[in-house]
Structures are given as structure tokens and as C-alpha cells.
């Protein structure tokens, strides 16, 4: 990226970060904010949950794992890792292994409330600090017939999504309501993340020339 490039949104990127993610959704979420970043997915498979590991502890551990693996390759830049899981009862639901598992998951989620938790880890080499946090959202799924769920699975969208659905995609029809951050369900809690990126100087608000006329409300 051209680090002198003009800002594309409300933030100027002062320290381009490395996004340790292969998720097109995470890449899109940062891009839509106009934040400049490099993409360097973690080449190692994320660790599975430990027995009885709390969901928030797991997604944090997984996000840290991804960030630390990529930071080994880019020790000079801030590195952001993230991990999102759908929690139903005591089960941590990641991405389905196949269409059958995706359908079974969606049948379990139908008509219920479930949690979506995302862990984020930002490694800041300049400050020699690692920042971590989790964000929780509650999703209420409507009741859907087996035929509809089978047709949704056949679309292929569920196969690379935690919980076997994409709230931002075709799967939006499944969701009756969300409490908490919507972007957290997609894969990055942008409200909390942009606060952290500002605190660490990765981004700053774009300066508005004082000559700019105030917007007539
Ligand atoms: C619940 C939900 C998940 N997802 C996606 C976001 C993530 O890409 C994926 C969660 O799996 P993750 O393991 O968090 O991420 P990933 O494997 O896709 O990418 P990486 O590990 O390289 O960062 O599910 C949606 O796109 N929409 C949704 O509504």
C-alpha cells in the first residue's frame, strides 16, 4: 500500500497493520472503514478448544495464536488476529466439516437464541504490548423449515462460516434480531476494535480543514 495514500474514510492509517486472517469478511470490514492493511493469513491450523474451555478463553487463545504466528514473519508491524465462534449451550460451534454438519447445526439454532463471541489480539511491537479483548453478541434465530435450511446449505454459504450461517449474506433471512455488535457476528467487533486501533496510534481521525463549512443539519 502507498502509506501516503489519501484517507478513504474517517480514519487516517498511521501504522498499517497486518491482518492475520484469510477471512474475506474481516478484510472487507476493515476496508469499508478505509483502513489500510496488509493480509498475511496464519499458515498454521488454529488450535481446537480444550475440554471445558470457556468460549471467551478459547477465541482469545485462538486469536493470540494466529497473531503470534504471523508476528514471527512481520515483527516490525502491528498484527491483528481474530477468532469467532457460535456458542449454543455448552457447545463451541466453529465452521462445519461438511454439509450434513451444517444442516444439523442450523436445525439446532433454529428458533433459539445463541451467543457469538469474537476474540481479538493486537500485537504492537513498537510499544512491546499485546492487547486482547472479546466481544459478545446474542443472535435470535427465527424458526425455519427443514426444506428452507436444506436449500440454504445447498447454496454453499454456510460451509466456511462459524455456526454454519452468514448474517451478512444470504443467511440474513435466518436472523430475527441481534443484541450487541452486528459486525462482531460477521467477524470483527468494529466499535471496540477502532477504539483500540486509535489508542495504539494505528489509526487517527482524519483532520478536517478548519475552512470546511459545517454541514447544514
Ligand atoms: C457467525 C458468522 C461467521 N462468519 C465467518 C467469519 C469468519 O470468517 C468465520 C469464523 O471462522 P474463524 O476461524 O474465526 O475465521 P476464518 O477461519 O474464516 O479466518 P481466519 O482464521 O484466517 O481469521 O465465520 C460470517 O462471515 N458471518 C457470520 O454471521
From TrEMBL:
Keywords: Cytoplasm, Hydrolase, Nucleotide metabolism. GO terms for cellular component: cytoplasm. Its cofactor is a divalent metal cation. The record marks 25, 84, 168 as: Important for substrate specificity. Transmembrane segments: none annotated. Pfam families: Maf. The active site is at residue 83. Its EC number is 3.6.1.9. SUPFAM superfamilies: ITPase-like (SSF52972). GO terms for molecular function: dTTP diphosphatase activity; UTP diphosphatase activity. InterPro entries: ITPase-like_fam (IPR029001), Maf-like (IPR003697). Belongs to the Maf family. YhdE subfamily. Nucleoside triphosphate pyrophosphatase that hydrolyzes dTTP and UTP. May have a dual role in cell division arrest and in preventing the incorporation of modified nucleotides into cellular nucleic acids. NCBIfam families: maf (TIGR00172). HAMAP family: Maf (MF_00528). This is dTTP/UTP pyrophosphatase. It comes from Desulfohalobium retbaense (strain ATCC 49708 / DSM 5692 / JCM 16813 / HR100).
Amino acid at each position: 500500500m502507498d502509506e501516503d495514500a489519501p484517507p478513504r474514510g474517517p480514519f487516517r492509517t498511521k501504522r498499517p497493520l497486518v491482518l492475520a486472517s484469510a477471512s474475506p469478511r474481516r478484510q472487507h470490514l476493515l476496508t469499508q472503514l478505509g483502513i489500510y492493511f496488509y493480509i498475511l493469513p496464519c499458515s498454521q491450523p488454529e488450535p481446537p478448544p480444550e475440554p471445558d474451555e470457556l468460549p471467551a478463553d478459547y477465541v482469545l487463545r485462538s486469536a493470540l495464536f494466529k497473531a503470534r504466528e504471523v508476528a514471527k514473519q512481520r515483527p516490525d508491524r502491528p498484527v491483528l488476529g481474530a477468532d469467532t465462534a457460535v456458542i449454543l449451550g455448552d457447545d463451541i460451534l466453529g465452521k462445519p466439516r461438511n454439509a450434513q454438519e451444517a444442516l444439523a447445526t442450523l436445525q439446532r439454532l433454529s428458533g433459539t437464541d445463541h451467543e457469538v463471541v469474537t476474540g481479538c489480539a493486537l500485537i504492537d511491537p513498537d510499544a512491546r504490548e499485546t492487547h486482547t479483548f472479546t466481544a459478545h453478541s446474542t443472535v435470535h434465530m427465527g424458526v425455519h423449515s427443514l426444506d428452507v435450511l436444506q436449500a440454504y446449505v445447498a447454496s454453499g454459504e454456510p460451509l466456511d462460516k462459524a455456526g454454519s450461517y452468514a448474517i451478512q449474506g444470504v443467511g440474513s433471512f435466518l436472523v430475527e434480531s441481534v443484541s450487541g455488535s452486528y459486525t462482531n457476528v460477521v467477524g470483527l467487533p468494529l466499535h471496540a476494535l477502532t477504539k483500540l486501533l486509535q489508542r495504539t496510534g494505528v489509526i487517527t481521525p482524519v483532520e478536517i480543514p478548519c475552512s470546511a463549512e459545517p454541514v447544514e443539519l
